[in-house]
Amino acid sequence: MEERSLMENGNEGLTKNWRNCSRKIYGGKKLNGEWERRTNKELEELFDEPNIVAVAKGQRIRWLGHMWRMPATRIPKRVWDHKLAGNRRRGRPKRRWREEVQRDLNLIGLRAWKRRAADKTFIKKYEL
């Protein structure tokens, strides 16, 4: 469900939800006797971990490498290779997992991923 909402609503919704939860956990800060809201930068420094969007993108890339090394008889591999027949619905096309992963790969500059996916350590070092 999380992956679906990440793709459909964009990364902004997931990041906003993470910030709201972090503000409740860490609370405000007191300056000169008055409480102030923590900035996004302060929250990131307090948490000291990669943001949730980068983690999700890294997991997508890892799964792609794992799925690519699967035998052709496995269901995820067959779904990846299958082309659907028929007509699309009217309107803007839905954002698909395949397109999102391709965009993530382009973002990190990894073009020839199919050839390099056999090396597990190669894909792991490209986590965002």
Description:
The protein contains 8 helices and 2 strands; from the N terminus they run H-H-E-E-H-H-H-H-H-H. The protein has 2 domains: 49 residues, no CATH class; 70 residues, no CATH class. Helix 1 crosses helix 2 and helix 2 packs across helix 3. The chain is mainly alpha-helical and 128 residues long. It is elongated, with a radius of gyration of 19 Å. Helix content is 60%, strand content 5%. The N terminus is likely disordered. It starts with a helix and ends with a helix. It comes from Popillia japonica (Japanese beetle). This is Endonuclease-reverse transcriptase.
| Biggest β-sheet strands, sense, barrel | 2 strands, antiparallel
Biggest sheet: strands side by side, in what order? Answer: 1-2
Total beta strand runs = 2
- Give the averaged pLDDT, no decimals: 78
Shape: elongated
As a percent range, the share of strand residues is under 5%
Write the element-wise H/E pattern from the N-terminal end onward: HHEEHHHHHH
Distance between the termini: 21 Å
Radius of gyration: 19 Å
The number of helical runs is 8
What is the total domain count?
2
By helix and strand content, what is the structural category? mainly alpha
- Which stretches of 5+ consecutive residues score pLDDT under 50? 1-8
* Helical amount: 55-70%
